Amino acid sequence: MAQISNMMLLLPEIILLGFACLILVVDTFSTDPDHRITYVLSQLALVITISLVFYLHTGATALAFGDVFISDPMSSALKAMIALYGLVLFLYSFEYLTKQGWVKGEYFVLGLFAILGTMVLVSAYSMITVYLGLELLSLSLYAMVAMNRDSASASEAAMKYFVLGALASGMLLYGISILYGITGTFQLNELNQQILQHSEQTGLLVFAMVFIIVGIAFKLGAVPFHMWVPDVYQGAPTAVTMFVGSIPKIAAFAMAMRLLVNGLEPLMTNWQTILIILAVLSMGIGNITAIAQSNIKRLLAYSTIAHIGFLLLGIIAGSQQGYAASMFYVITYALMSMGAFGVVILLSRKDFESDLLEDLKGLSDRNPWFAFIMLILMFSLAGVPPFVGFWAKWFVLKELVASGFIWVAAAAVFFAIIGAFYYLRIIKLMYFDKADETPALEATAQMQVVLSLNGIALLIIGLSPGLLMALCLSSLL
Amino acid sequence: MVELLVFYFFGAVLVISASMVVTIRNPVFAALFLVLCFFSSAAIWLILQAEFLAIALVLVYVGAVMVLFLFVVMMLDINIARLREGFVKFLPVGIIVALLMLVAMSLVITSGYFNREEPAIQVSQVAGYSNTTQLGKALFTEYLYPFEIAGVILLVAIIAAISLTMRKPRSNKTQQPSLQVRASKKERLRIIKMKAEPKQDAGGQSS
Fold first, then answer.
1. What are the boundaries of each domain within chain A?
2. How many CA atoms lie within 13 A of B86 on its CB side?
3. How far is A74 from chain B (nearest CA, A)?
4. Torsion sign over Cα A152, A154, A155, A159
5. CA B26/CA B38 separation, integer angstroms
6. Measured between alpha carbons, how far is residue A157 from residues A116, A160, A236, A308, B105 in Å?
7. In this structure, is the dihedral angle defined by the CA atoms of residues A388, A393, A397 and A400, taken in order, positive or negative?
């Protein structure tokens, strides 16, 4: 039963919720057209959340609220990361929205709610909490995608995202209800026990598990549930695309960990087979289709699909080290993706999204420093050795081979090499092509500082990946 | 025995009204049949002694959702002919998909995995047992945290709906007397100096 002492574990969520409601009210009464107060308060809320997560971090596992909430090292680490990324995302978003001239208070409020949903999902220990956290996250994201009402493409993207997302939630819910019907519990740890006792029901359990995997694969954007990804990435305002491409991926990783590893571990051999199909298809279709893209947001969407395939490989490995490698992958991937969209935002001007590959032409002449940052990002995404993307791929593949899935690892390397082509083409465009027009970059000082820090952080993690990997390992063991 | 008869009656009404919702041409009648559909399922829930769910279904769905739905249906001018345009064209595909699903489902169901033992016979509750009380207790103790999150989700839905639909009152046409009084001749009357133009033929027939 819920005790007051256990409620302390929820303090970051409670404070974040309180701040979100406060900011909503403050924004309603403020007359500032730039919504600067809303922005500053949102950043403050995230800073407080991060410090609370650190303050409450004990390294022990504890349950709260009738055991539907768990606080363990993984949830603390992921929550701190999510709130930190939220800070960076809001900074990029504020820059973008100010540039485009439609800053809205609701953007930050909904962003905070999305982050809250992710945090709920990360520390969910019951299928109900998993589902509710996911809905909180998704609903906020749908609204954020549609927020620029004057853009037809954003409305279309939101519509597609919403309809397909609702369908996927339905699938997930259906799987959850069948599991509840068999085992009579929503608790993930009890589910684990019950599955062992109902081993004669394996067929039915696998039937339910397939629906749950569909739900997870949709949220991750793995092939064949990836149809929404390119349209949403391209249609949504770049700031929202950045949001969709970073924090929800961490959430989907946590969801996969909670449901598949904490809940359905006895069915591991079954879900491994399904995930292998999803992963190989994602890496193949993602990387090959990305080559044909001329829009950088669409290209990054297909690159996301390919990276999701890699992320799944660590979960397929089925060992603690494998999960840690996946966690490393998702944390670094979110950082790379934010940086890449950050460069797109940097290049954009009012009423000009700058989302075509051609717009990157001759970036090194226009601004050598940010061309260099983009170079780091692209090398990281491609997985070129000293950069962090290489280590992420390396850790995942190492664990995969250790678990004996050698042909999957070989396929992964093969598709990664194909994928390197389009990343290198961007570098070629930046360094060896001449720009058609060279308008000066419009970026505030803080945007430049954060984007530079983003790139440098990737470089540093790439040079000493052991630190972050040790964190991931310690949070899973 | 009576219970069984009541169940069959409401079950039949449910199935018939549900198929009418799909097949009937007039959307208003379809919505009304949906109301009947909800009503008969509420009755079936009552037979199952789930009185809270039955009441909630009638109050929330019949009372609120369907009335709103009817409003929308009546306000929008839905062109039924256009909605049915693709019916014949997509019918073969629809039939194939339906058959495939039927085959898949029957394969799954007959595979022997679904042969669960019969659920235990429901014990009828003592007098004074309240379904609603039990649900309320569970919601506010065991499921307090999920309940709170559901509340937050509703808040997000409200924020999203308002931020997506509300427009600034830009076509506000109230009068502002103080400004009207202060108006001067300069603001209302524009005097333009124009050169006198040479006289032209009215007809324009001359060539």
1. 2-476
2. 4
3. 20
4. positive
5. 19
6. 23, 5, 6, 21, 33
7. positive
Q: Do residues A340 and A422 make contact, with C-beta atoms less than 8 angstroms apart?
A: no
pLDDT in tens, A25-37: 999 888 888 889 9
Query: Nearest C-alpha of chain B: how many angstroms from A260?
Result: 21
Query: Which residues of chain A have a CB within 8 Å of the CB of B114?
Result: 204
Residue of B111, B143, B153 with shortest CB distance to A139 = B153
Which residue do the tokens 């769905």 mark? B61
B145 touches chain A (CB under 8 A): yes
Residue position matching structure tokens 């929820």: A10
Tell me whether residues B150 and A203 touch, CB distance under 8 A. Answer: no
Minimum CA–CA partner of B145 in chain A: A65
Give residue B82's pLDDT.
66
* Other beta carbons less than 10 A from residue A77's beta carbon: 21
- Put simply, whether A184 touches B (Cβ < 8 Å) is no
- CA A297 from chain center: how many Å? 16
The number of CA neighbours under 13 Å toward the Cβ of B116 is 14
In this prediction the ipTM stands at: 0.91
Which of residues 43 through 102 in chain A touch B, CB cutoff 8 A?
64-66, 68-69
Give residue-wise pLDDT tens across range B18-69: 999 888 878 888 889 999 999 999 999 988 888 888 999 999 988 888 888 8
Does B119 contact chain A (CB < 8 Å)? no
For A176: left if phi > 0, alpha if psi spans -120 to 50, otherwise beta; the answer is alpha
Structural tokens at position B57: 């279904």
Token pair in block for residue B135: 């649900």
> CA A406, CA A398: separation in Å to the nearest integer?
10
CA angle at B9 for the pair B5 and B15, rounded to the nearest 5° = 140
- Across the interface, whether the CB atoms of A68 and B114 are under 8 A apart is answered no
Does B160 contact A24 at a Cβ distance shorter than 8 Å? no
Beta bridge partners of residue A69, listed in sequence order: A64, A124
Q: Which helix (H) or strand (E) holds A69?
A: strand A69-71
Q: Where are the alpha helices (DSSP H) in chain B?
A: 2-23, 27-47, 51-56, 66-75, 80-83, 87-110, 131-140, 144-165, 177-182, 185-188
Q: Which of B114, B150, B163 sits opposite A132 (nearest CB)?
A: B150
What per-residue confidence (pLDDT) applies to A253? 94
Q: How far apart are CA A444 and CA A276, in angstroms?
A: 44
Contact B156 A136 (CB under 8 A): yes
Interface test with A, best of B111, B145, B155 (most A CBs within 10 A): B145
Measure B194 CA to nearest chain A CA, in Å: 41
Nearest chain B Cα distance for residue A343, angstroms: 28
Per-residue pLDDT band for A93 (boundaries 50, 70, 90) equals very high
